[in-house]
Every structure is written in structure tokens, then in C-alpha cells.
Amino acid sequence: MRSKNIKTMDEPHRAPSAPPSDKVDAELNRQRLMSLINSMADGVIALDIKLRIVITNGAALNMLNINNDPVGQSVDQLLRPLTADGQPVDLQRLIRESTRPWTSRDWLIAYSPTDKINLYLSVSPVHSGYGRAGGYVLLLRDITREKSLEQEKDDFISVVSHELRTPITIAEGSLGNAELLFKRAAVDLPDIAAMLTQAHNQITFLADLVNDLSTLSRAERGRLQMSAQPLNGRQLVEELASAYLAQASNKHLLLQTETSASAEAITSSPLYVREILQNFLTNAIKYTEKGKVVIGLRPYPAGLAFYVSDTGIGIDRHDSQRIFERFYRADNSHTRHTSGTGLGLYVASKLASLIKARIEVKSRPGGGSTFTLLVADLASGGH
Ligand code: ADP
């Protein structure tokens, strides 16, 4: 890590012979503020409205490897972030367009072709009163170590899930067959039948977990390349309904479709939309004991709205705020008796953000749930 003496940008003014006391106070306050900013471990850069540097601290100068006083320079003379694939970022434009604070964790700063750091950057407009922007404040942090740990974790998950997939699939198939043959043979050994069912359920759970983990690690690495293609909403709804019919009737549930006549085809990722809806359907069937599950489609100004509704156990307000978190499962008697990884909706929300889609949930404990996926038509520039 580069080390440099911390530079105070503004040296204190020489005190005039008899300064008025409010001037002394103001000067003292200014010096206090400067030492506070200079003591921060994060880099700070304050810009005026024309994106010229007004204040920097030692941490920012260290991180950007700057020796001279940059006050008055334009921000792009000092800070030139690159995207992960080495393309320059148009930071000036992004800052100028910011009306609200935003952050990025995906850019790099390159000192040389081989010496790079991962940058955390936060940009906040500073309001000078009457809602007008008076400048911007940038916060910088070197997150190279965190990023490499994340990368190692993702690599680990990806290798482990890949290695586990084959043996689990084989074991799942064999157990499923053994269970079926045993039941068909109608031998009166209920303990063995129960053991086989239990083993089969557990291995199915493992197979789901491995699938979710591997989709997740690919989504988090940004490896899932979204391919925008024509998506026929009605056809997808019909296909999904027939694929899940057996699962629903096993639980004596009705499975209905609702497709609006005016619902047109759009451009999006049929693969991801299907994966997300499959997740909604699996949950709807899993968390419903009586009644019906509906998969439907209606027009939505920016694209298509798909929904899956059920007459199941519902979700209370506290849980509905958390069900998209990784590994979160509502704690109730029903979830305790059904297998689940708590990853399905987390993965669904990751996939949705990759295709500029939004998920909405309406639910009431005991009154069923409706999960809606608002899919933007990517051909018309999204929503
Ligand atoms: P899981 O594998 O547990 O189903 P998910 O991420 O798919 O994981 O869902 C998270 C939690 O959200 C579930 O454990 C359940 O508590 C709740 N949930 C999801 N869908 C429904 C639904 N249709 N009805 C009731 N609860 C649901």
C-alpha cells in the first residue's frame, strides 16, 4: 500500500494582530473540520458545482497516488475509474446527473497495467439551500481485499455446487426409483417405505440447494449473460401451467390460467422470466393446502405483468419484508414441515434485477398470496 504524508489542503492563515473573536472562532472551527476530514480512513473529495476540487483529504491523495495539491483541478484529472473490463467510466457525466446519493463497488483504479485496486465510490450531491445542488462530495475506499474474498467465496460455491451436482442427481434418481418400486411391490414393510420417502425428500432438498447455489453464484458474478429475445407471455403461461399440473393435482389443488386478450409479445429474457415464475409456482403449490393456484398475465404499460396467486397460508407483514433475503424462511409450523432452502426468492430477485424486472408481493396471513413480476419490454428501452 502506498504511504504518503497526509496533506492538509488549507494551511491556517497567519493571525492578524487583533482578530475579532468571531473570526478566530470561525478559523478554529475550520481547522477542526479539516483535521476531522484528514483523520478519516476513507478518501474524501469535495467538488464545487463545476466539478472542480475544493477539498481532499490525505486518504484520497494516498489512494489516488497524488503528490501535488489538486485543489482547483477538475475531478476527471484526479479520478479516472475503469470498469471491470478496462473501459473508462464517464464520471463527470454520472456526477453531473446525480440528484440523489449513489454508490458503485464495481470500478477499478489502475496505477499501471498490472497494479490496480477495486474502488468503492459514493457520490452525494450537496444542497446549498432551496433544494439547489451546491456541489458534490465523493467518498472513496480501497475494497480490493473484500473483493478478492468475495471472488474466492464465489469460486468455492461454484466449484462445490458443480462437484455435488452429479452424485446428488444420481442418488436422487436411484432413491426415487427405489421408492416407486417398493410401493409398487406392495410389501408390507411400512418402516422401510417411510425411510425411503424420507431419504428421497432429503436428497431432493439437497438437489434444490445445489441448483439454487449454482444459479446464485453465476448471478452474483454477473456471469449470467442476459439474452433478450421475443417472449410470448401467453405461451409461457400455458406451458408453465401444464408443467405444474401434476404437482398441483398431487395436492388436490386447482391450477388455472388467466391470460388477457390484449397481452402482446415483448422482448426480454424468456429463460429468466421462466425461472422466476417457476419459483413462484413451486412456492404457491408448496404453501397452499386447499383451494387453487392461478398463473396469469395482464398488460402493463412498460411491458407485461405475470402473476402467480394462491389461496395458501399467506405471509405476514414482518416476513414479507424479509422473504427476498438470502436463506430467509418465515418461521411458522408450515415452513417447519416443508423443505426449502430460503434461496428461491433471493435468486428470483437477482434474476429480476438483471432483466430490469420488478417483483411485487401482496399477501395476508391465511388469505393467500400474489407474486407479480413486472417485466419491462427491453425493445422499448425498459421502464
Ligand atoms: P423456500 O425454499 O423456503 O421456499 P423462498 O426463498 O422461495 O424459499 O421463499 C422464502 C420464504 O417466503 C418461504 O420460506 C416462505 O416462508 C415464504 N413464501 C414464499 N412464497 C410463499 C407463498 N406463495 N405463500 C406463503 N409463503 C411464501
Portion in helices: 40-55%
How can the largest sheet be summarized?
5 strands, antiparallel
Radius of gyration: 28 Å
Spans of 5+ residues with little confidence (pLDDT < 50)? 1-12
Question: What letter string, H or E per element, gives the SSE order?
Answer: HEEHHHEEEHHEHEEHEEHHHEE
Mean pLDDT: 86
Distinct compounds present: adenosine-5'-diphosphate
What structural category arises from helix and sheet content? alpha+beta
| Total helical segments | 11
Gap from first CA to last CA:
43 Å
Biggest sheet strand line-up: 2-1-5-4-3
In percent, how much strand structure appears in the residues?
A: 15-25%
What is the overall shape?
elongated
Q: Please count the beta strands (DSSP E, at least 2 residues each).
A: 12
What does this structure look like?
- The chain is an alpha+beta fold and 383 residues long.
- Helix content is 43%, strand content 22%.
- The chain contains eleven helices and twelve strands.
- The chain has helices at residues 21-39, 58-64, 75-78, 91-96, 144-185, 190-220, 233-250, 270-286, 317-320, 333-337, 344-354; strands at residues 43-48, 53-56, 102-110, 116-127, 133-142, 229-231, 254-259, 266-268, 292-300, 303-310, 358-363, 369-376.
- It has a five-stranded antiparallel beta sheet. The protein has a five-stranded mixed beta sheet with strand order 7-9-10-12-11, covered by helices on one side. Strands 6-8 form a two-stranded antiparallel ribbon.
- Strand 11 (358-363) and strand 12 (369-376) form a beta hairpin.
- Helix 6 packs parallel to helix 11 (344-354) and helix 7 (233-250) packs parallel to helix 8.
- The longest helix has 42 residues, at 144-185.
- It binds adenosine-5'-diphosphate.
- Adenosine-5'-diphosphate is lined by residues 279, 283-284, 287, 310, 312-315, 323, 328-330, 335, 340-346, 369.
